[in-house]
Amino acid sequence: MARDPLPPGSTIGILGGGQLGRMVALAAARLGFHVHVYCPDPSSPAFEVAGAHTIAAYEDAEALDRFAGLVDVVTYEFENVPARTAEILGLRQPLYPDARALSTTQDRVFEKTFLREAGVDVAPFAAVDSADDLEAAIAVTGLPAILKTRRFGYDGKGQAKVATIEEARAAFRHFASPAILEGFVPFAVEVSAIVVRGIGRETLVYEIGENRHEHHILKETTIPAGIGAETRAAARDLGRRIAEALDYVGVLGVEMFVVRDGAGERLVVNELAPRVHNSGHWTEDGAVTSQFENHVRAIAGWPLGAVDRIGDVSMVNLIGDEAHDYAAIVSDPQARLHLYGKAAARPGRKMGHVNRVTPFAR
Ligand code: AMP
């Protein structure tokens, strides 16, 4: 849908009040937009940096209707926005990324089917709706395999590596939810592409980052990824193709595995995130335009900002009480500290991150 660019002074509505919403709100404010955050949690980190907020359930049709009347465009910071919520808001205001991006990415079977139909390599997979499907699913994926809930999984929750059909049955019983079985990909490196696509269909892809996880949570992203230059270019191409196939608007995170066969490298796409992405936080300090600003530009119908990186970058997440080390971190003048303003540093909770940029020599 072609649309006039939103002028500064317009209001961006954000569903979800976590750190991603907070960083989108900060970027929007810098461009002169007002921000209204909608989230059921009264202690949302994004509320502190937004001019207005609504505390209400995502199923509260009246509150959603009021919110829609106060904003000029709606976006979100998490992919589990209920379909009905998206529908109510989408009737009143432009919603970016759109309902198709949401429905495709919030269900792992729909997502992998879409990718396969778009000609993208994914792990062999099969839907598992009941325990009776497991045998046929294993015939498709082989063993070992990974059983994942179709919906609502994150940071390794709702997934289990299984080596036998008995383990698969036990995991399925434990999840008690429709699932997907995926072949185990013997990857060497995990990488991601951060793609941004404007309303005018201009598409840009940031440099590919390499992701290292600890306890299933992203710990560090390094730019550029330690893979061949050709593989990096192929990963960016893949990101662009996926955004185009979805006719996407906004920032899209594309997580991929790099498999090394002999001397070659091959890419297998694991997951899409229809939102700004943790592995793109380096762009705040290491790129000409951050992923957050580019998301705002995209959904406001503005031209995109350049995505060139200004050097090599490391982004380290501060998880749980690691955020208590802020004084030591800021005593390093090269470290750019970002804290999310969360009160309780629970184990496994993302509290902030640190970017370190080694600028290119002039
Ligand atoms: P996901 O929730 O799909 O992002 O998966 C979380 C993590 O589990 C990934 O970052 C991988 O490290 C691992 N993983 C997920 N799927 C597979 C797979 N099919 N093969 C090997 N490792 C996987």
Word description of this protein:
This protein has 362 residues and is an alpha+beta fold. It folds into three domains: 11-95, 3-Layer(aba) Sandwich (Rossmann fold), CATH 3.40.50; 124-183, ATP-grasp fold, A domain (Dna Ligase, domain 1); 189-359, ATP-grasp fold, B domain (D-amino Acid Aminotransferase, Chain A, domain 1, 2-Layer Sandwich). Helices cover 29% and strands 29% of the residues. It has eleven helices and 17 strands. It has helices at 19-30, 61-70, 83-92, 99-105, 108-117, 134-141, 165-175, 229-245, 283-286, 291-300, 326-330; strands at 11-15, 34-38, 52-54, 73-76, 125-128, 145-149, 159-162, 179-183, 189-197, 203-205, 209-214, 217-223, 250-261, 264-273, 311-319, 335-339, 350-359. Strand 1, helix 1 (19-30) and strand 2 (34-38) form a beta-alpha-beta unit. The longest helix has 17 residues, at 229-245. The structure holds adenosine monophosphate. Adenosine monophosphate (AMP) is lined by residues 123, 146, 153, 156, 159, 182, 184-185, 190, 213, 216, 255, 270-271.
